[in-house]
Amino acid sequence: MPSAPRPFAAVDLGAASGRVMLGRVADGELSLTEAHRFPNEPVRVGPTLHWDILALYRGVLDGLRAAGRTAGGRLASVGVDSWAVDYGLLDASGALLGNPVHYRDGRTEGVAARVAEALPPRDLYAATGLQELPFNTVYQLAAARDTPQLAAARTLLLIPDLIAYWLTGVAGTELTNASTTQLIDPRTRDWSPVVADAVGVDLGLFPPLRLPGAPAGELLPGVLDGTGLTGPVPVTAVGSHDTASAVAGVPAAGERFAYIATGTWSLAGVELDAPVLSEESRRANFTNELGVDGTVRYLRNIMGLWLLQECLRDWAAAGEPHDLGPLLERAAAAAPLRSVVDAGDPAFIAPGRMPERIARACRRGGQPVPRDAGETVRCVLDSLALAHRAAVEDAVRLSGRAVDTVHVVGGGARNALLCQLTADACGLPVVAGPAEAAALGNVLTQARAAGAVAGGLAESRALLAATQPLRHHEPSGDRAVWDRAAARLADAGAADAETAFGGKEK
């Protein structure tokens, strides 16, 4: 009997946890199993919030060791994806100069306004097409200007590139993740010297760009020894921004679909062939990030399940822990759309006291304050569904791409209540799954590079649709109630804007 093909290992690092998944592709079958999962817990040192990057790397090595045991010590290749925008700095010897700073750290507060003095937001968007978020890499680098660490740096590696460098000793900058830095021109798919010069960023810090599917080195001898793997094991560049891999892992047919990659963040939008760089797009706060196979991920970042995660964390810290299942049942039984908040409000970015901040936002908007945990969770999920609806509608309007189905992938695909509310709010059918879309997109990019999967994204997505468990949610209820909730939220936003410009809070 012929031996089974070697599996592909997907290292998938999220903001709350990391995992190493094993994907097998053969004879029209695609399977994914978890080799190892580990927490991703940031550490505050003094005033600064850091990623514990060495603990993450140890988790990756532990995961590769576990994958090797499952696969008899032999892997077809390894691919690495993670969250975006954050980076590590290396000195001339290749040593890490310090733990990477977490994007939720407060060091970028007010930096966007300073950057705007050198490069107005209209010009920055025209050059990069990126949504203005206070933690974009360009703002992090502006905040780090004149620091000893940046002065000593000779190389800058985004998080998945840093992990790949430690595994292989080969430095590179994968394009889909580089496009989140606000330093890439999405038309040329190369660095923007206009932006770099205006902001004072040395593009020489970045190693050469590489595309998904390109070789990214081989596991070093020490890594092979430490994991028990038999070499050579190639490392393949994938869509190293986890959303790029997740969108590649959407089981869609044709082009008429929207996607919502849900997890700590919700990334909602459509897939295009070219960026949308209009002033209207900028004002709608849409981003043009690069995807696999030359695509553009035209989307809006929404706060996502971070709101729920933080509520659960706060309740547990206060000695009132909640199991998510019963809590979602209470939320489903709570009055719908009683209170909604703006899920994209930057006030929710920082960790801590989330139930209190949600209550404050409801009060400020003249809406009832949630009375218990169940009502708070219903407020969060209703608000996310409204934000999903707004993002999908705006993406269709601004891009001209018609949509007849919404695909929800990532961890939020497991939340049946959120998926049904999203279908109801959008008035469109929702296909939920796969939950591990990023890992699957990672595996499929490796498999295509190795010749184990033929064709492009369409063929990969057909394989996903044929092999992965999916749930379907049809829209129900009166969509007018969502219209009224959206109008109520818009009125609350207008009141906030009036207050910000000297009006009186209502």
Automatic annotation (TrEMBL):
Single Gene Ontology MF annotation: ATP binding
Boundaries of every Carbohydrate kinase FGGY N-terminal domain copy: 10-248
Ranges for domain Carbohydrate kinase FGGY C-terminal: 258-450
CDD domains linked to this entry: ASKHA_NBD_FGGY_RhaB-like
Pfam entry (one): FGGY_C
One GO biological process term: rhamnose catabolic process
InterPro entries membership: ATPase_NBD, FGGY_C, FGGY_Carb_Kinase, FGGY_N, Rhamnulokinase
Keywords assigned by UniProt, alphabetized: ATP-binding, Carbohydrate metabolism, Kinase, Nucleotide-binding, Rhamnose metabolism, Transferase, Xylose metabolism
UniProt similarity note: Belongs to the FGGY kinase family.
Protein name: Rhamnulokinase
Annotated organism of origin: Streptomyces radicis
